[in-house]
Amino acid sequence: MSTVASPTRLPVRELANQFARQLIPLGSTFSYFSTIPLPEEEIQQYLHEPIAALPPALCVFLAKVGIILAPYLEKGNGKEGELAAFEKPEESRRIFGTHLKSETDSMLVLAVKDEDMADYHFAFYNAIAALAADRLSEEAQEPFSKLLREELAAEAHGEVDEKSWHLKQSLTRRQANARKETKLFRDYAKQSFEDTLTLYLHGICCDIDVETGPRQIASRHLRKRLELLESMFPPPDGYAVFPELGKKRR
């Protein structure tokens, strides 16, 4: 693998442009480049294993995706956007994954240094889910939006993750009829889809525990969401979803 020596920080988009022509194919959908040397067993853990667990229908939907592995990622300053860092940033500025998209292909940039593998897998699937949420048409999103409207009508409390939780709170505070099709609802629905798809994909790959707490959505509503996603993007052969929700991993 090639090693980037300088600068110590580089805008993510500039990094992606720099290495776009050096991507190594990983099947028909994915290709990758690592900016630091990695042994084959780590390439297996960082790429082959999480990609193998992705639903085939989702891979077809995503078309072409490049993956760049960087040592660290850092929040941008508003002008440059996120940065790839080759020295460890302050903890408060660290991020673990991001995605870039164009009309024809997309790029994930993921941090790998000093990263717990479970956290890396979450960042990987979150970047995939964010990319899918960006590409999904309103028509394809509608079944999920319908579920959200049913939850709002039932005054279902909670969400899957922080971002969708905050958007749901904002929606219900600022909009008398939270189910009405508005920008507030669309923003919430997109983020909720992204967060739920992240959980779904991570659950296919790994044995994870669904977080419990005051903001966590009830399991009966979560089950309906996961069943919908399973119908949209069935797991690959040999994989199943969430044994704690009644499904046994094969």
Name its key features.
250 residues; alpha+beta; Zincin-like; 5-stranded mixed beta sheet; 8 helices; 14% strand; disordered N terminus
Give a written overview of the molecule.
With 250 residues, the protein is of the alpha+beta class. The chain folds into two domains: 9-135, Zincin-like (2-Layer Sandwich); 138-245, no CATH class. Helices cover 45% and strands 14% of the residues. The protein contains eight helices and nine strands. It has a five-stranded mixed sheet, with helices on both faces. Strand 8 (97-101) and strand 9 (106-111) form a beta hairpin. Helix 4 (117-135) crosses helix 7 (183-205). The radius of gyration is 18 Å and the shape is globular.
SSE order in H/E notation?
EHEEHHEEEEEEHHHHH
Distinct helical segment count: 8
- Indicate the radius of gyration in whole angstroms: 18 Å
CATH architecture of the largest domain: 2-Layer Sandwich
Supply the helix-strand structural class: alpha+beta
| Average pLDDT metric | 88
* Number of extended strands: 9
Shape: globular
Strand order of the largest sheet: 2-3-4-9-8
Mind telling me the CATH class of the largest domain?
A: Alpha Beta
- Return the domain count: 2
